[in-house]
Design goal:
Length: 50
């Protein structure tokens, strides 16, 4: 099983330092996400912006 993290934990991660605003807007409070799930949500959103 993948490790899971809250929105706040993901916002503090070095990996997502340039996407903190997107994480704040897209991810829900009190929900746990794997890195892969968070990346997929962000990528889907970014593709829709193009």
């Amino acid at each position: 099983m993948d490790n899971v993290y809250t929105k706040e934990e993901l916002k503090e991660a070095e990996r997502f330092k340039n996407r903190r605003d997107v994480i704040e807007a897209l991810l829900k409070d009190n929900v746990y996400y794997s890195i892969g799930e968070a990346e997929e949500i962000i990528e889907d959103f970014m593709e829709g912006c193009v």
